[in-house]
Amino acid sequence: MNKIISVANVKGGCGKSNLSVALFWKFVEEGIQPLYTSNDKYSPENLPLFESPQVQICDFGGFAPKSKEWKIINDSNNFVVVPTMMDSLSIEATVDFVENINNPNLIIAGTRATDDDVQLLKKIFTHDIFRFRNSTASPTSILEGKSPWELKDANPLLKRSWKGILGDVDK
């Protein structure tokens, strides 16, 4: 397995699982076999398993990581994506969490962020920032255990939503 991408934040409800699932399906779309893992008992259990995964996506639940998780998060050979909602409590928790990360490959994902929100995050953090829309597409994929391509033809709104989400992840 080449790389590990940790999606982590101590703040619950900031979009970690939705972003992790979107990353999973984006890799599949690109022909890369991902492995999804999580330490959260409420994480998706029905994503497909590939024979030879090339990248691992670690969805670390909304609580303080343990030493094993910190080792993965701080390994500079890996990437860390820290999603945050745009309310002041979420941003404050994210700032505290990011201060404890010693990995140059850290990206902040503004969940449900507008362009103005992205500019605010750029003033707060020195890391790369991207906007991630949180929609019904990811939870629907998680609940039904189906890829966005299987779901998109069933509902035109899901097709549009997935196009936007996968476009955000592509950036």
Write a brief caption for the model.
The protein has helices at residues 16-29, 67-74, 88-99, 115-124, 137-144, 148-152, 156-170; strands spanning 3-8, 34-38, 55-60, 79-84, 106-111, 128-132. It has 171 residues and is of the alpha/beta class.
What does this entry look like structurally?
The chain is of the alpha/beta class. It contains seven helices and six strands, in the order βαββαβαβαβααα. The chain has helices at 16-29, 67-74, 88-99, 115-124, 137-144, 148-152, 156-170; strands at residues 3-8, 34-38, 55-60, 79-84, 106-111, 128-132. It is 42% helix and 20% strand. Strands 2-3-1-4-5-6 form a six-stranded parallel beta sheet, with helices on both faces. It is globular, with a radius of gyration of 15 Å.
Name the features.
6-stranded parallel β-sheet; 7 helices; single chain; globular; 171 residues
List the helices and strands and how they pair.
Blueprint: E1 3-8, H1 16-29, E2 34-38, E3 55-60, H2 67-74, E4 79-84, H3 88-99, E5 106-111, H4 115-124, E6 128-132, H5 137-144, H6 148-152, H7 156-170
Parallel strand pairs: 1-3, 1-4, 2-3, 4-5, 5-6
With helices defined by DSSP (H or I, 4 residues minimum), what is the helix count?
Answer: 7
Distance between the ends: 23 Å
Pick out the low-confidence regions.
none
| Share of β-strand residues | 15-25%
Number of β-strand runs:
6
Order of SSEs: EHEEHEHEHEHHH
Described by strand count, sense and barrel closure, the largest sheet is: 6 strands, parallel
Strand order of the largest sheet: 2-3-1-4-5-6
**Approximately how much helix is present in the residues?**
40-55%
Q: Indicate the structural class.
A: alpha/beta
Radius of gyration: 15 Å
**Could you tell me the mean pLDDT?**
84
